[in-house]
Design a protein that fits this description.
Radius of gyration of chain A: 27 Å
Shape of chain A: elongated
Largest sheet of chain A: 6 strands, parallel
Oligomer: homodimer
Order of helices and strands of chain A: HHHHEHEEEEEEHEEHEHEHEHEEHEE
Strand order of the largest sheet of chain A: 2-1-7-8-9-15
Distance between the termini of chain A: 80 Å
Number of helices of chain A: 11
Helix content of chain A: 25-40%
Largest interface: A-B, 65 and 66 residues
Structural class of chain A: alpha/beta
Chain lengths: ~350, ~350
DNA sequence: CCCGCGTAGTAATTCGAATTATCAGCGGCG
DNA sequence: CGCCGCTGATAATTCGAATTACTACGCGGG
């Protein structure tokens, strides 16, 4: 009686047009248009227009139909307030492609939060089902929820590579492996022979990918991998220098900032004495709240994650999934930004 | 067959537990708990746990008549790429409040465009009706579409004051009248006696509000209104100075930039020789694509539009509208930013 | 004359959950 | 014995749309 009273149903339209509800449905869907007299169809369409009828997505979906609605589930807020906005490029790509494909977007904001995070299954219900399929994004993820989604055979695509022990899941990710390998190759071509990787202990997919790309590149050049896991930049830099490293790959620009500062303290110049490459864009969610980009920001050598394209491709993969529920995985190439923190090594160390 | 084949229903649970579907529903909802034997309830709950049953939100909402979805319709793209992002604060407020009120958000991106703009009525039907109600935002608007929405008695709230000849419509706007009056008062208190308004010819609601606020303030001080409509900043400044104006209210920061440049050319200092106040935030959609804010940006004296709050209040008004379809109008106060472009007048001109 | 067949619909069913009406069984009392 | 009232559960209905099964009607050919 709240919103439902104003809502016109097919049955009401049918009564006004003097036909049965089934006819209204047929007129709407154009199915078996041969079976309906042009006069009847016109009469029904007239009433449809007068009443401003629109389908009830719940009824249609209950029956197994589709709504031309794609869900967008984020574990964090969709519209963040920070200037360095991690999600926006993804969402822009998603919106553009959804518009191109003729889908509306449903943002799942209704659920309560637990531990400050949103959940797909809240109070025993899967809210995603309102949409025909859903795009998931966010750094966090809940393996249990993912597993249940897979079991329900609900069509969804993750933005960013995700693996689930339950079975293959669809995703559109960035090819960190290839990008890291490429970075290693470029440094090698510049003459570097001791190329290190400063990684983090947290073992999520992107980190693992970067490491495997690094290790593959090192193996190709028959060099032992030089992986450092130290969190303190000063100690890390000491370790790196002790190993004779001339070029360092760093996971985050925050860590790179730390290394750079310590290097300056030691009287080292970047890139003359040490080349540094950041493996990816700045991820603001891992950094403290920096609202204003410092004007002296370093022009890091790095690679860019194709966020915009990832969003668009995620929509395309999801739409494909609706027709053919065969899981699909897609990795998009990162573009390498030359930057100002790489150069030829000053000392030719070929231990 | 695509989605949902893996789902467990209440009926299946009931069969496994050897009871009827109604009992399962009762156990789940705890209703009439007195009517169910503890043993039966335990048995059902056991099966519920084993099968991993989750409520299908569709069936539940189908009965309820409401689907807990609020539409968000924008005439332009929701996720713009520019840094100066006009919509984001609104959307952030909308998202937060929707989450608090337990609604999902449906972004209408599917509609085809005409003249590069989205439309509410496509193919004769109102797609907004999919949601329980809808929030509209965007600088453009289509009076005809608005009129039809009113006639359909569809619950909607406009962000920004909008009037329709058809009847009262709900909106949440910023109180430009009061803010402009307040600006005028402050300048008066500083000693200014010739306070001008540089307006634009386009007559939308915000412009009219600013003008009426200005005129009310001038009337209160028994001063003739000094309204300028010249678009060329050089000519406008000449007119302004010819009238002996010592403080100028300007509609947009773009225009203010032009005036400032011309004033400098004439050897005038701001604010010493001329105080300037911008009536509102910078509206990036009226400016050329400026991706990087110039570091020499002027600290304009101006007032800020409470975008975030407007979004949140729009959701609250809309939710209220669902219960009681009585149109509601709400104006939120702007906050005045002192800035660096106002000062006491150098010449005491009291013509 | 009646069967067959096409036409233009209508009646009935389905989806999943919630709710209402109903029913079976049992104890107690007149 | 029969009936009331209570308990604990089940059958039936509802929501809106889509689809299948069915029917009423008309026309033509055998």
């Amino acid at each position: 009686m709240t919103a439902g009273s104003g809502r016109v149903t097919q049955a009401q339209v049918a009564r006004l047009a003097g036909v049965s509800q089934a006819v209204v449905s047929m007129v709407l869907n154009g199915s078996d248009s041969l079976r309906i007299t042009p006069e009847t169809r016109d009469r029904v369409q007239q009433v449809l227009r007068e009443t401003g009828y629109t389908v009830d997505i719940m009824g249609r979906r209950l029956r197994g139909g589709t709504n031309q609605i794609l869900g967008v589930f984020t574990y964090e807020s969709v519209f963040p307030s920070g200037v360095a906005d991690f999600y926006r490029p993804f969402l822009l790509g998603i919106e553009e492609e959804a518009e191109a494909q003729g889908f509306d977007l449903l943002l799942f904001t209704s659920g309560g939060r637990r531990d400050g995070r949103r959940r797909i299954y809240e109070a025993g219900t899967n809210r995603l089902r309102i949409a025909d399929g859903s795009i998931l994004l966010g750094r966090h993820n809940d393996p249990q929820e993912l597993a249940q989604l897979v079991e329900e055979q609900f069509p969804f695509v993750f933005v960013g590579r995700r693996e689930s022990p339950t079975g293959p899941i669809s995703y559109v990710g960035a090819d960190y492996v290839a990008a890291t390998r490429e970075v290693h190759e470029r440094l090698w071509d510049l003459g570097h022979r001791r190329i290190g990787l400063l990684s983090v202990t947290e073992e999520n997919e992107p980190t693992l990918d970067r490491r495997s790309g690094y290790e593959a590149a090192a193996r190709k050049r028959r060099r032992p991998p030089l992986v450092f896991l130290e969190e303190d930049p000063a100690i890390a830099l000491r370790q790196v220098l002790d190993e004779g490293v001339t070029a360092l790959l760093v996971e985050s620009s925050a860590m790179a900032d730390g290394i750079l500062a310590c290097a300056h303290d030691l009287g080292l110049k970047v890139p003359e004495d040490l080349s540094i490459v950041v493996l990816g864009d700045a991820d603001p969610s891992q950094q403290p709240q920096v609202h204003a980009v410092p004007s002296t920001a370093t022009d890091w050598s790095m690679f860019r994650i194709p966020r915009h394209e990832m969003g668009g491709h995620a929509v395309r993969v999801l739409v494909g999934l609706l027709k053919n529920p065969e899981p699909r995985q897609l990795l998009l190439p990162c573009t390498i930004h030359e930057g100002a923190t790489t150069a030829k090594p000053s000392t030719t160390d070929s231990r």
